[in-house]
What does this fold into?
Amino acid sequence: MNRLVTNLRVVRALGLRSIRQTFRRPQLMAPIIVFPTMLLAIQTGGAAGAVDLPGFPPVQSFLQFMLAGAMMQSLMLAGNSGGIALAVDIEMGFTDRLFAAPISRYTIVLGRLAGTGALGLLSALWFFAIGLVFGAEIEGGVPGALLAIFLVTMTAMAVGGIGAAIALRTGTASVVQGLFPLVLVVLFLSSAFFPVELMIEPARTIAEYNPFSFISEGVREPIIAGVDATDTAEALLAIAGIVGLGLLLSARALRHRLRVG
Amino acid sequence: MSAPAAIAAEGLERAFDDVLAVQGVDLEVAEGEIYGFLGPNGAGKTTMVRMLTTLLLPTGGRATVAGYDIVREARQVRASIGVALQEAALDPLMTGRELIRLQATLQGLPGGEGRQRADDLLERVDLAAAADRRVGTYSGGMQRRLDLAAALVHEPRLLFLDEPTTGLDPVSRKTIWEEVRALNENGTTVFLTTQYLEEADQLADNVGIIDSGRIVAEGTPTALKTELGNPHIRLQLEEGSIAAAEEICARIGPLLPPVDAKTVLVEVEHGAADIPRVVRALDEAGIEVGSLELVRPSLDDVFVAKTGYHLEQDEDESDSEAVAT
It folds into this structure.
């Protein structure tokens, strides 16, 4: 019990450090809030007519549709930034301080993920605020908004797990940073920014099986239509899959790091 | 029954692919001593420290730290030790106070106690005024002191310091030495790696010299230097008086091979106490002495004798007392 309490305190302390680190290093904050906000502004300003395309889901406005995409972009980049920050810690030897402490080594990863989850939460709140200010309606009401915020937070942690695993494995910030374009490719090959039904092959097939499409729909449905049990369940399953993959890869990377020093 | 060793290693090895960084090291560090682990860059010092602090798995041999096996009881090892690694592992974006408090949490100290310890330690290492500044704004010496304070937050009985003064100015170096001495006087065992001979000589009760992954000499600094023989007196004379001076000096002690045509080297058994005898004998013979110097064997001489090269190429580390005449 004592050990559990200590580990929880460590996760909290490392999570807070991770958040502070992001706020104190603007280059980590920019991809999480600034870039997705700019993209949201450009897309809603320039492609608002897309809602009139045949097959486009019924929405109140293009902004309402795009809110989920902006949140997805933000949380993906939050996960990537979390990985970069962990890799920087490895490069400057800070993780040695953590590895030399009498704590479960998994708390180091969990602490980082807690911080990434908090940034996901912040991002969800930010984009809901923007949506409400610019007239988007949340069809699912408060429960729908809470569900979307929950899914965004969990996904940020799940993506952060993958970022952490890559950071632990490579120990190099530039490698994790190099995944930045890949993050965007994965997003553009999902339903985050555009309905799958309107995509052409092979992007359409890829997007249909892309787990981030399921998560995007899980986040979007409460905003554009209301809470849907199937969409929510599929989103949760996709998140669970990414979490599982992240944990597996992180565990292996941790063992590798201890072997190679 | 003797007290268990603070650190005991038997045949400890670490290979990186085909390279054996540490090759079958046997080591014993007693409770309460300062053990200086001396060697050049790449000798295996940091690899040893990383294995003993459970940051790196050994590929052979075994070791216990604070009585715990470094592989099977790694968590107990980590709870028993304080570690300040080479190139202070600090986050430049954190403040000094945040870092020490985080370290207190990592060591399992309750919140109030951790905050109190952080304040006390910042005071102790003279960083209270800078405690709320970001670590990135600290000087090298301040960062080292902060790193040391962080390693002490849970009052460990065994402290690992990996090159704690590398790159520091002499004043900062002396401040760290004083702190290490004070800790040791309070009973903390210190395992200190260094590439500075003077540091090992000044601080360590016992010294281990490591070269190419192997320990090539071990003992107290005095014993290691004594092993090399007695000190000698170096005399600078006029060229015409060398032969006569050699004849006189040979009666006092064995002559050593001269380094040039104006120098006589004579080994003396009693060090400085033999200087008046030499001066008197030369004076009575009417030989004028240009300069006289007592040269004691240094750790560098020990290092050269054991490895065949100098550890510090740029610094004259001879312990010498020059007497101008």
About this structure: Chain A touches chain B at residues 6, 9-10, 13-14, 17, 20-21, 24-25, 89, 92-94, 96-103, 258-261 (CB under 8 Å). Chain A has one domain: 2-260. The radius of gyration of chain A is 19 Å.
